[in-house]
């Protein structure tokens, strides 16, 4: 969408279907070029001057229609579309898709296997908490995970609410094999800020890079 005009994605915005499809085709072109098999399909914001509850039904209908179109297009490219709930308490009060429960309900209605949940634990904690149960419940739907400490949105070992060593071990025990994206703002130098990852690897008996010391 037009970010300067206040748009943040178009997939659920009524009346913007043509622009959404054009942008999606461009995204597929970029993804194909760089070899990226996953595309975040951003829902967009509740239009200015409208009540969220009043437009919720129309936005869901638009979202489902656009997601089915997306799934058909991405299936031709062997790509996956991702839906990310973004919290409306801190980050974006007008964003349409706010909780994993809402995203899961929409994914069920769309019913396409190449659409998945992009679960950002920062947003999930702010909106719902209950991270252990949410990860267990929605694991079959999850196509990507993102992390940041709450509430500062910095490194996982910065002061905050979340116990990331526990959450990482939980993901391993649940059999999650996908990527974990570092969707946070480093407090300082990026490489120094990755000290939490090196410490976690060492605590698990791994070399830097995630390989087992026993395999050396």
From TrEMBL:
Residues 10-199 form the Xylose isomerase-like TIM barrel domain. Keywords: Isomerase. The keyword Transmembrane does not apply. GO terms for molecular function: hydroxypyruvate isomerase activity. Pfam families: AP_endonuc_2 (PF01261). Gene3D superfamilies: Divalent-metal-dependent TIM barrel enzymes. SUPFAM superfamilies: Xylose isomerase-like (SSF51658). GO terms for biological process: glyoxylate metabolic process. This is HYI isomerase.
């Amino acid at each position: 969408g037009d970010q300067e005009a206040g748009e943040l994605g178009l997939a659920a915005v009524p009346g913007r279907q043509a622009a959404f499809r054009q942008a999606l085709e461009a995204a597929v072109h970029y993804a194909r070029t760089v070899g990226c098999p996953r595309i975040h399909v951003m829902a967009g914001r509740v239009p200015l001057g409208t009540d969220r509850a009043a437009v919720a039904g129309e936005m869901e209908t638009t979202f489902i229609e656009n997601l089915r179109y997306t799934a058909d297009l991405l299936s031709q490219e062997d790509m996956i579309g991702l839906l990310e709930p973004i919290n409306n308490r801190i980050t974006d009060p007008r964003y349409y898709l706010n909780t994993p429960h809402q995203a899961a309900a929409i994914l069920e209605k769309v019913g396409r296997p190449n659409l998945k949940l992009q679960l950002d634990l920062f947003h999930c904690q702010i909106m719902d908490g209950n991270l252990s149960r949410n990860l267990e419940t929605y694991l079959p739907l999850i196509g990507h995970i993102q992390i940041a400490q709450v509430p500062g949105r910095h490194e996982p070992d910065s002061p905050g609410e979340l116990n990331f060593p526990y959450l990482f071990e939980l993901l391993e025990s649940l059999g999650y094999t996908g990527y974990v994206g570092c969707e946070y703002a480093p407090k300082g130098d990026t490489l120094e800020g990755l000290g939490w990852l090196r410490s976690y690897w060492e605590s698990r008996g791994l070399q830097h890079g995630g390989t087992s010391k026993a395999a050396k």
